[in-house]
Structure formats: structure tokens, C-alpha cells
């Protein structure tokens, strides 16, 4: 029996990090059978997808839809061989990262701070989704994508690119998505995308803290602590009844966490824009970042859907006084 290669996405898993772990583990095992691993002198390991935490409702829907169970949980990397998908940051990876052996990284973000003593399989493209990178790896190594895995990869792409509407979307994501939809037997991609994205739109049963923390990150901007969260909904009216409650919670979090500012994106997928809730010591910095005045507690940002591309960079600039 070969040793196990644990293929794992980031903490607080999203659909891409779970589905890409499954898709890359399958690909790795095909590489093993067909001699690709040997040819590239990559270690002869049996890949197994794992998750670092409970998948969200969207991911669970997708797994069930294509006949997969939730991968086993694995949070401690000590003494294990791991392949990272959808991240390369120590803060987002397995615990005891220093005692793990990183064998591969497949990602679509900025390069993080993980490092290895030896050369490894490291593939990163600036595309909208890790599954798009993995599709490229299947194609270039001549591995056929099974129907069910194609469904997972398509779902990951639709999730990460917000049905190809996010500014992070590239033509390669669209091409990959269309090809995967054919394999998966998904006829109406947009309709399926809305079905996938709507699974996280229902916040009625969630606590306000859970709504905020589901997709929330801390940043250091020129020495100031800034928090930025996001919720993407099919229609903002779904979140309207909870808006005031969310705002009050942000005020509380700001005090408790010693933040300079917290921004929270209420993103309307269909309208393709974001209502940005803002709590801050200096409204002028936030207003400068987006070139708009705050109207009460928020501002509407037309066409803004990506935190990574459209919210963090202008904020960082404004905080740097540029
Ligand atoms: Mg992700
Ligand atoms: Mg991703
Ligand atoms: Mg995301």
C-alpha cells in the first residue's frame, strides 16, 4: 500500500476548495496509474481528498447532486503528506503545517507563504477558480474527466466566479465551465448556477454572527486593522430584514476586535452590485477608496462583486494615503 497524499482546501471551506480537492485527488490517482507521477518524479502516493471543516450548504448541495459524500475531516498536518488546493497561505492551511510535507499546490490566488525544502508540483494561474486550473491539468495530461467530477468542477467555477459575473472571471473559466457542463450533462449553465448560488442566499435560520463570519477576513492596511466580509445573495431583498441586525453586530465586532474599519459586502448576484455596510473611525478613507459618499450606514457600488479584486485593493490604496 502506498502512503496517503491528503488533498486539502483552505480552512472555512468553500465549494471550490472541497470540489477541487476531490477533482485533484482523482487526477493524481490517474497520474499514478498512467505513469505521469513516475515520469515527473513525483512521489508514488495514493491521493485522498479531505476537508478542514464542515462544508457549507452550497457545497453540500453540490456534493449530493453529483453523488459524493462529504470528505473526511483532516485538520492536523503533522507527519502527513499533503497537497494544497485553493490556497497557499499558512494561516489558511492545516495545523502544524511545519511538520507536514507539502507535495503539491494547485491554486488561483496570490502566492502565499508556504514553502518547501524540495521542488514540488506547483501550479497557479490567475484565473477565477482552482477547478479551472485542474481542468487544464486534466486536459494537458490526457486524463478523461468523469461525469460526476465534471459536475463538481463546474459547480466550483460557477460558485467562485458568481456565474461568470465576478471580476475574477477569465475567458479560461468560461471555456472550462462550458466544456465541463457538456461532460456533466448540465444544459442550462446559468440556471444551474443560480440554483447553486441560491443555497447560500437563505440566511433565515442563521445567527447574525454566522452570516457575517461565513466569509470574513482580517487585513492589516498600513498598520490599521480592517475586517471585510461578504455575503452573496440572489436578491438583496432576501437579506434586507437582517440588515440592521448585521450592522449592529459589525459595530459590536469593531469595538471588541479593536478595528479601525469593518466593511461588509451585501452582494446582489443578479443586479451585479454590492451594498457596502461600513463601520469606521474615518469615513473619509472609505469614501476616498470608492469615490462615493456614504449614505447613512452604507454605499451602493455598482458592478462590484469581488472582494479580492474590487474592494481590498482600493481600500489598501486609500489607507496607504495614495
Ligand atoms: Mg476558496
Ligand atoms: Mg477558489
Ligand atoms: Mg470566494
Task: Identify the overall geometry.
Answer: globular
Average of per-residue pLDDT values: 96
Low-confidence stretches: none
CATH H-tier superfamily of the largest domain: inorganic pyrophosphatase (n-terminal core)
CATH C-level name of the largest domain = Alpha Beta
Structural class designation: alpha/beta
Measured by DSSP, the beta-strand proportion falls in: 15-25%
- N-to-C order of helices and strands: EHHEHEEEEHHHHHEEHEEHEH
Helix content: 25-40%
Radius of gyration (CA) equals 20 Å
**In CATH terms, what is the fold-level topology of the largest domain?**
inorganic pyrophosphatase (n-terminal core)
List ligands, each type once. Answer: magnesium ion
Short description:
Helices cover 39% and strands 20% of the residues.
Describe the structure.
By secondary structure, the protein is of the alpha/beta class. The protein has two domains: 3-198, inorganic pyrophosphatase (n-terminal core), CATH 3.90.1640; 208-319, Diaminopimelate Epimerase, Chain A, domain 1. It contains eleven helices and eleven strands. The protein has helices at residues 15-34, 36-39, 57-65, 130-140, 147-160, 171-184, 189-198, 208-213, 243-257, 283-290, 307-319, and strands at 4-8, 46-51, 72-73, 81-85, 101-107, 121-124, 216-221, 224-233, 261-268, 273-280, 298-302. A six-stranded parallel beta sheet has the order 3-2-1-4-5-6. The longest helix has 20 residues, at 15-34. The radius of gyration is 20 Å and the shape is globular. The termini are far apart. One magnesium ion binds at residues 10, 14, 16-17, 86.
Amino acid at each position: 500500500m502506498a502512503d496517503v497524499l491528503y488533498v486539502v482546501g483552505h480552512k472555512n471551506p468553500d465549494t471550490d476548495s472541497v470540489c477541487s480537492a476531490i477533482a485533484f485527488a482523482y487526477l493524481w490517482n490517474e497520474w499514478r496509474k498512467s505513469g505521469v507521477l513516475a515520469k515527473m518524479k513525483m512521489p508514488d502516493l495514493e491521493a485522498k481528498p479531505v476537508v478542514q471543516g464542515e462544508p457549507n450548504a452550497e457545497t453540500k448541495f453540490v456534493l449530493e447532486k453529483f453523488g459524493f459524500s462529504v470528505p473526511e475531516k483532516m485538520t492536523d498536518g503533522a507527519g502527513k503528506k499533503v497537497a494544497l488546493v485553493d490556497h497557499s497561505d499558512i494561516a489558511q492551511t492545516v495545523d502544524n503545517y511545519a511538520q507536514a510535507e507539502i507535495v503539491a499546490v494547485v491554486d488561483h490566488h496570490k502566492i502565499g507563504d508556504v514553502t518547501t525544502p524540495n521542488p514540488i508540483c506547483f501550479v497557479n494561474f490567475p484565473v477565477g477558480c482552482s477547478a479551472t486550473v485542474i481542468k487544464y491539468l486534466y486536459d494537458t495530461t490526457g486524463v478523461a474527466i468523469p461525469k460526476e467530477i465534471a459536475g463538481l468542477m463546474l459547480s466550483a467555477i460557477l460558485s467562485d466566479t458568481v456565474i461568470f459575473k465576478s471580476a475574477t472571471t477569465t475567458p479560461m473559466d468560461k471555456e472550462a465551465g462550458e466544456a465541463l457542463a457538456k461532460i456533466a450533462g448540465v444544459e442550462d449553465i446559468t440556471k444551474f448556477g443560480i440554483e447553486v448560488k441560491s443555497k447560500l442566499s437563505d440566511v433565515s435560520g442563521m445567527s447574525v454572527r454566522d452570516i457575517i463570519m461565513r466569509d470574513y477576513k482580517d487585513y492589516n492596511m498600513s498598520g490599521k486593522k480592517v475586517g471585510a466580509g461578504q455575503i452573496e445573495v440572489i436578491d438583496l431583498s432576501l437579506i434586507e430584514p437582517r440588515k440592521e441586525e448585521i450592522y449592529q453586530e459589525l459595530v459590536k465586532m469593531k469595538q471588541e476586535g479593536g478595528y479601525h474599519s469593518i466593511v461588509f459586502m451585501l452582494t446582489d448576484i443578479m443586479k451585479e452590485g454590492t451594498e457596502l455596510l461600513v463601520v469606521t473611525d474615518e469615513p473619509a478613507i472609505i469614501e476616498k477608496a470608492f469615490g462615493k459618499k456614504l449614505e447613512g450606514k452604507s454605499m451602493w457600488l455598482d458592478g462590484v462583486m469581488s472582494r479580492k479584486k474590487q474592494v481590498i485593493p482600493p481600500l489598501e490604496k486609500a489607507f496607504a494615503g495614495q
